[in-house]
Every structure is written in C-alpha cells, then in structure tokens.
Design a protein that fits this description.
Elements: E1 2-3, H1 6-19, E2 32-44, E3 48-61, E4 74-86, E5 100-103, E6 106-113, H2 121-131
Parallel strand pairs: 4-6
Antiparallel strand pairs: 1-2, 2-3, 3-4, 5-6
Bound molecules: zinc ion (ZN) (2 copies).
One zinc ion is lined by residues 146, 148-149, 151, 158, 160.
C-alpha cells in the first residue's frame, strides 16, 4: 500500500502548522511526505487479532529556524515497524506503560486500533514526532534576531546589546 492520498497531504499540513509554528497556510513547493505501509493481520492466543505494519516514512520540509525564522531544508527518513492491537486489550496489566511489544520474535512499536476501521494517522503522527526536530536551527552559528529591533543578526548588526537566551 503506497499513499500519496489527500489525507497524507492534510497530515503534512497539520504537522507543519502545529510543529513548525503555523506561519504558513501552504506548504513549500517541494515539501512532501511519502509513506509506504505493508500490513498483515495475525492472531495470537495472547493478544487475539493484531495488525503488523512495516514500511518507511520519508519527508522533506522547510521548517523555520527557531532563532531567525529562515526556512531550511530538512529531510527525514525512518523505518516503520509497528503492531496494532485491538483496544480491547489496552487494559491488560502487561501492556501498561510499555511502548514496544514483541510479536513473532520481533520488537515493534505498540499502537491500538478500535473498531473495524483502522486509522493510521495517530501512528504516523507519533512516528513523525520521534524523527522531527521540534526546535530546528537553520545553521549552528545562527545569530537570531535582535530582541530589541528585530534585525536579522545574520545579515547585519545593530547597536543593541545582545543577551543570549
Ligand atoms: Zn536561523
Ligand atoms: Zn537591535
């Protein structure tokens, strides 16, 4: 299953707005999110029905620098190896406070699904949160903006005293 479906685009817009400050309604031309998922159903005496999810998530974003707001290109690429159990299982004592589960001798990130329709948005969202830097800096030496006059100190300097946060 490969998705370039509209819900991927809307996920990407939500993501850009909520993590990267929401400055833009629109995505940069080359921003993209590509998700490949292979799903299999399984059954175990212990966990009942489960769904394994294997794949890859790749993305390209232009988040604004937290110091000077300049956008810079960021790429992410992360494998997906997850298992979804029915939320009927969620109350099991063994599953409290764990984030990974071993299914068929393989450790996978644990998620839950409810009902018959599986929504992958929470899963993708959580994976993205793990691989995206929430505080992007466009360059390690970024001088940021002057807190007094707002001048971009990477471009020029002003007479205001600089206090590093
Ligand atoms: Zn910067
Ligand atoms: Zn200044």
């Amino acid at each position: 299953m490969t998705h370039s479906a509209p819900w991927i685009t809307s996920l990407l817009i939500d993501l850009t707005n909520s993590i990267f400050g929401g400055a833009d309604e629109q995505l940069a031309e080359e921003d993209s999110l590509h998700v490949e998922l292979t799903l299999s159903r399984g059954h175990s005496p212990k966990w009942q029905e489960y769904i394994t999810v294997d794949g890859q998530i790749k993305g390209r974003f232009h988040p604004p620098c937290i110091r000077c707001l300049e956008r810079s290109r960021t790429e992410i690429s992360s494998p997906i190896s997850a298992c979804l159990l029915s939320d009927d299982q969620q109350q099991q004592a063994e599953l409290q406070d764990i984030t990974d589960i071993i299914i068929n001798n393989r450790e996978r990130e644990l998620f839950f699904y409810s009902g018959r329709q599986v929504d992958f948005t929470p899963l993708l969202w959580e994976l993205l949160m793990m691989v995206i830097d929430p505080n992007p800096i466009h360059h390690p030496d970024c001088q940021g903006l002057c807190p007094t006059c707002g001048l971009n100190l990477n471009m020029s300097s002003c007479s205001h005293k600089k206090t590093l946060a």
